[in-house]
């Protein structure tokens, strides 16, 4: 219902809430052990931890300069009186699940983005409240009543602005950005507040005389695109307060697979490589056609005696990339126990699928953006021929070398 609403226009009528728990892990620990209240609590590892990293710290610890992702050793230097705790992820997950239940009482469209953060599309639900402030307060109150924890809430016409509002209001904050207030909020901000603008990009922008969002807005879109490529376009849209990404509740579990039974058993490892490359390319094509990323890759192998083994591995990041699917499946194949004979069937599968987000550059490092582009191009060609005639470089080589009988004239993309 909201998939295409708001396309491009910050004032197209959507109302998005972003909810972010304050110092979540540390706050849960303090709730469980009230004697820690008001103390610099640092969750991530014991103080003698050599490899530990700060997962979350209380606001009291932040005053000493302790930050998330900092090595525990450094945190000990900055804040020797800190209380250092091992994380209890199981507990945090339970609390997080209960908070999501609370959020679902405000809207059916809830998209968790991490254990302590979620977006809600409340466009249809705002009518139950006399104002957006009242809605935001109700969310905070409901969370606190259920879990005795504080959350910060941002409410705005899109995800980017809602998260910005949360960030600016933290901790225990509430900020509502009406469409008419977008420019007043956005224009004076330093460019660092725009997603995707890290220290390096910020330095580059400063060299171009761009310090604040207003400076981005003052440049023509083409000027930014020429200098920063596609990110320049994204930057321009952000500076305009535009973010078309819809709130997407998690999809029910789905999977995709491609398998093939061979007339003659496959024996040579390089033949296996070639077959797996084809199957992975097919799975990748279907993932992208249906708009999914896979987090788990599955290999299926059937021996001449019909013994069938499946192996799966979960990737660090979800992917729809042919080369990664292939390499993962091939690595799984190499780990199969040695058995006599070849294979009568091979299959590659994709599980734990998640929907593509709107492809904005700040979510995709440049390399994957380029790869995705190549994949789309290859898909366009293969869809026309309705079979795999073009593979990506690496895979194509594997396929071409092993199957000289097939037409590969179009390859090269
Ligand atoms: Mg948080």
TrEMBL record:
InterPro entries: DNA/RNA_pol_sf, DNA_pol_Y-fam_lit_finger_sf, DNA_pol_Y-fam_little_finger, DNA_polymerase-Y, DNApol_IV, IMS_HHH_1, Rev_trsase/Diguanyl_cyclase, UmuC. Binds 2 magnesium ions per subunit. This is DNA polymerase IV. HAMAP family: DNApol_IV (MF_01113). Pfam families: IMS, IMS_C, IMS_HHH_1. The record marks 25 as: Substrate discrimination. The gene is dinB. The active site is at 117. Monomer. It is found in: Cytoplasm. It comes from the Bacteria. Gene3D superfamilies: 3.30.70.270, 3.40.1170.60, 5' to 3' exonuclease, C-terminal subdomain, DNA polymerase, Y-family, little finger domain. Its EC number is 2.7.7.7. Poorly processive, error-prone DNA polymerase involved in untargeted mutagenesis. Copies undamaged DNA at stalled replication forks, which arise in vivo from mismatched or misaligned primer ends. These misaligned primers can be extended by PolIV. Exhibits no 3'-5' exonuclease (proofreading) activity. May be involved in translesional synthesis, in conjunction with the beta clamp from PolIII. Belongs to the DNA polymerase type-Y family. Residues 16-198 form the UmuC domain. It comes from Carboxydichorda subterranea. PROSITE patterns: UMUC. The keyword Disulfide bond does not apply. PANTHER family: DNA POLYMERASE KAPPA (PTHR11076:SF33), DNA REPAIR POLYMERASE UMUC / TRANSFERASE FAMILY MEMBER (PTHR11076). GO terms for molecular function: DNA-directed DNA polymerase activity. Mg(2+) binds at residues 20, 116. Its cofactor is Mg(2+). It catalyses: DNA(n) + a 2'-deoxyribonucleoside 5'-triphosphate = DNA(n+1) + diphosphate.
